[in-house]
What does this fold into?
Amino acid sequence: MRKCLLIVMALITFSANAQTDTTRVLFIGNSFTYTNDVPTLVQGLANAAGYQLKFVMHAPGGISVGDTAQGTSAHMNNPIVFDLIRSDNWDFVSLQDNQGRFIYGNCHFPDTNVSKVVRGHIKIRDSVHYYHPCAHMLWFAGWGPKNGYAGISSTGSGLIDNIYYNYKCLKNTAGEIISPIGKAWERAIDTIPAADPWGPDETHESLAGAYLTAAVIFTSIYRMNTETVAFDGGLDSTTARTFRRIAYQTVMDSLAPTNLSHYIPDISIGAASLTATAGFTSYKWYHNDTLIGTSTANIFSTTTSGCYYVVATDSNSCDNRSVEKCFVPGGVQEIAASTGIAVYPVPATDLLNIITSELEKTSITITNSMGRVVRELAHASAKEQISIADLPGGIYFITVVSEGQTYRQRFVKQ
It folds into this structure.
């Protein structure tokens, strides 16, 4: 494994008025972070979703968080790491250790006299919190060699399970948020075996593995339906979209074990209102990514279709963004990866295909981001191809109603 220092800073340029909305992410790791440039892929997803993201990456090859043999090169002892922590007002710090320190499972780590895994993570966490009280750590729960490790597991999936287990042990001691990267890899291996997440050396990630890793980190940060983000990162569009869906499903399915639910407000949907978790000092409500209201109350009245999230401010003046949820009057939510519903291509340009093969007596409505109906089919067939060539570019919403059930999905028109 090559030993080199790579520090990269990247900044998406936007108008000065928008700079306060920039998300700042510090990536600390080794070659598992810099192979195929995972941070730039995270930034590409953010850019495509309309968000500003700035990152710095410190990823010297072969370096671990707390290996004593590495001296001041180990992240917990490296002045460069702590200079970077102080260098900007970070929102998130993604910390990737040598995954071999986590492969034993059962809360067992290497000899603490040699590898101070938990202590090292806590030391970096404490420094981040000292300078940035509102920042969150993202623990990089990744993967091991494709063919396992002798005496521990004969498969890469077995190592992934052990790694994830030990990151949960770390979380129980150090708190913060797990990025469930390896668990998304497991789903991808089952879903698209040909899109091998491991690279030629069967240890580092391929471009597909790096893209899926980035999609999990992106979803952990923004908590939106990643499937609808029109950024393929060099993959074919079908694989990329499937991987984005897997990333979103994995993060949403593990809000509790990854500890993400501990840090974010929840939204429940009523017939004509949205209710966020109580106990915050103020709530900023967003509709289709546009701020529509700020109040000290945790209930927001609405009868307007669309996708909503809330940014709740706690007593320490820290902002906490909820998972995005979509709403139709009457309390119907979006089903992000709806069984029996397929919408493609995404993004679309001229024609949009909508397949509802498992539904009967179906109506389809397409609305723009302001809620205005732009297409409507009262009696849709199982497969519809709808011309959208005349629609301006932007985000649109498909509502499918069948047998008293309502399904909703977002798409992007280029």
Remarks:
- The chain has three domains: 7-262, 266-328, 337-413.
- Residues 1-20, 330-339 have pLDDT under 50 and may be disordered.
